Amino acid sequence: MDLLPRRLLWLPLLLMLIAAAEGWYLHRRGRYDWRAYFASMGDAVGRAIVNRAVGISLGGALLALAYTHRLSDVPMNRWWSWPLLLLLQDFLYYWMHRADHRVHWLWATHSVHHSTNAYHLAAAYRLGWTGKLSGGAVMFAPLALLGFPLPAIAGALALNLLYQFWLHTELVPRLGPLEWILNTPAHHRVHHASNPPYLDRNYGGILIVFDRLFGTFAAEQPDEPCRYGLVRPLTSNNPLRIAVHGWLRLWQGLRRAENWRGRWLALFGPP
After folding, report:
1. pLDDT tens across 22-60, in order?
2. Distance of CA 231 to the CA centre of its chain
3. Cα 245 from chain centroid?
4. 101, 94 Cβ separation under 8 angstroms
5. DSSP 232
6. Please, are residues 260 and 266 in contact by the beta-carbon 8 Å criterion?
7. Among 150, 186, 146, which Cα is nearest to 166's?
């Protein structure tokens, strides 16, 4: 399931330039790690190569299967179609993202996104190389079963991720009343922090209301500065090391397991 049509492939390049502009601005103030920037770009390039080589994803195949058994056909030319799809997709994104943090199999890929110890726009590009293997996109199967076309589902996810690009910065302060409804840079800074009060919080994509409803919301506190990165920090800027470190830790957990229950928990329990 490709998120961007070919005519929009220039968009990631534009966002890379915007991230570089932020880096230039911060570098002039003496606080930007260009090695982390190029590590994030290396992750993005590696992901593009791997995705092209692998082809169809596990999640995409399951979505296609769900669509063949759809309950209806949702027309996408009605005024309500896209607003409804974006709302439902964001709701399911919340649960997918929550699972990414609570299921070790999914965390092995998603931990790449949290591996940088700095918080800049370039961090949005760290999405790992193994998303097609982990199959998290199956969480959107209810949309396919309802009858939303697969290209529309992919487009909604692309819009969600595009919105999240600007969240990865410390340059934007709190945004007043918008903080109650939307996911904002302040909320997403909390999500990327490894401080104990901030762990496993603020999973929302576009909206923050689902975190408020389901008890996973935490506000950024002035007396608790965000400490970014993993609980066990990864200091490497090697894109390959960044891409596989989560899987290596999963494998270590499997080797330590003494029985089938332990192996199951090593794969599908909390990381």
Report:
1. 999 999 998 899 999 999 999 999 999 998 888 778 888
2. 18
3. 17
4. no
5. S
6. no
7. 186
